[in-house]
Amino acid sequence: MPFLKRVIKATLRNVDFDKNLESLRSFEDYVETIEYNEAYTITLDEDLFGPNIELPIQREDMEHAANLERKFLFVNPSASGTTKQLVGGSKSTLLASLLNDAENDQLVFIPHVSGFHWVLFVIDLSYPIVYYLDSLHGSIHQNLKLILSTAIKLRDNAKNLERILAWKEVECPMQPMNVECGFYDMRFMKELIANRSMLSK
Prior knowledge:
Layout lengths: L1 H11 L4 H15 L7 E6 L1 H4 L3 E6 H13 E3 L16 H9 L7 E8 L2 E8 L4 E5 L8 H17 L7 E4 L11 H14 L7
Parallel strand pairs: 3-4, 6-7
Antiparallel strand pairs: 1-2, 4-5, 5-6
Helix pairs in contact: 2-4, 5-6
């Protein structure tokens, strides 16, 4: 299963956000030069999904993507991944440092893979509350719950906040077989970007 191995390797590779921040800013400027009736083909790097994939996008898609960072924070799965070994700190401190960059009105997406199964954690830091979405309708792993709770507590301590963290398991669609969890993770994020009402179920 060489394709699956490449996907796992790419998933666990950490992303240096600061290194790519200037590219993101340049992308926002570039969007302004595109006509609305034009399509621009981009190549999704193999680090993202395994193989290289060409994807045509239009200006309205680019504008949507450029605005995502203001409303949402996407955390690399390797930050919470159970298979990644950290040097010089715990997963909680790594997550706390990432959450420090988030505004309270942003929704934080943390896709997480345990073994070969993907689940999604969504954090609303304004309350704070952690939403758990699992397309197999399983329970939250207690060790991971401790890691996330500690990370949010560290963030609150750094900001002199004293709050009680709430947890909610969201009633979400169930995958039909045992191989669609990654697709459902992406589906959940896509739907939440468009409308947060799923979190109230």
